[in-house]
Amino acid sequence: MPITVLLVDDDALVRAGLRAILEAQPDIEVVGEAADGAAVIPLVRKVKPDVVAMDVRMPLMDGIEATRAVLRTVTDPPRILVITTFEEDEYVYGALRAGADGFLLKRARPTEIVHAVRIVAEGESLLFPPALRSLAAAHGNESARRALEMAALTEREGQVLRFVARGLTNAEIAAELHLGTETVKTHVSAVLAKLGARDRVQAVITAYESGFITAGADE
């Protein structure tokens, strides 16, 4: 089955460019478009995409609020890939904190755009660049510190979280730790559950905001 994608951007040229790039791939299908975040929820319910490629800045409802709305109201929500012009952007970080699964620069090369969609769809890796890691570290807060403390991660789970923060897949983490892939998958699931994180992005945000990982340490 192909990866199905919904494109959400107020710039028709950006949507056309993304559609052309993605539909050139045999394993990706664009199933809809929207010009604003306000139109996302009914479209998601109608076309049931695997991935929503979501612009951050839109006139009626921005990507942050649209991400929150989708995750709050849609049963079995899609993965959300934030589209942005600038990676050092509080809006982008806000969207990731709201539950988005990764980010994509509008100036990215076609191969990078395709890779980003596949990575987010698979959910076993991470699109969290150094600029956003620094933002996360700068947003240190007591809530994240308490969440990390309450999680009481084992030494192994802490190791796994650090590798997740570096963007490694389960298979790559297994190779680093000389463990089976299923064992790593179990550890990752335990880390997410203990942190109360929806996915890897949310877990890594908590790791940086709590000070468990510092900016630059795991790049």
3D structure, described in words:
With 219 residues, this protein is α/β, with parallel strands linked by helices. Helices cover 53% and strands 13% of the residues. It is built from eleven helices and five strands. It has helices spanning 12-23, 40-47, 63-73, 90-98, 110-122, 130-138, 142-151, 155-165, 170-177, 181-195, 200-209; strands spanning 3-8, 28-34, 51-55, 79-84, 102-105. Strands 2-1-3-4-5 form a five-stranded parallel β-sheet, sandwiched between helices. Helix 8 packs across helix 10 and helix 10 (181-195) crosses helix 11. The longest helix has 15 residues, at 181-195.
Q: Mean pLDDT, nearest integer?
A: 90
Low-confidence residue ranges: none
Total count of strands: 5
Number of helices: 11
Shape: globular
Radius of gyration: 17 Å
- Structural class of the secondary structure composition? alpha/beta
Tell me the helix content.
40-55%
How would you name the oligomeric state of the polypeptide chains in this document? single chain
Strands ordered across the widest β-sheet: 2-1-3-4-5
Tell me the strand percentage band: 5-15%
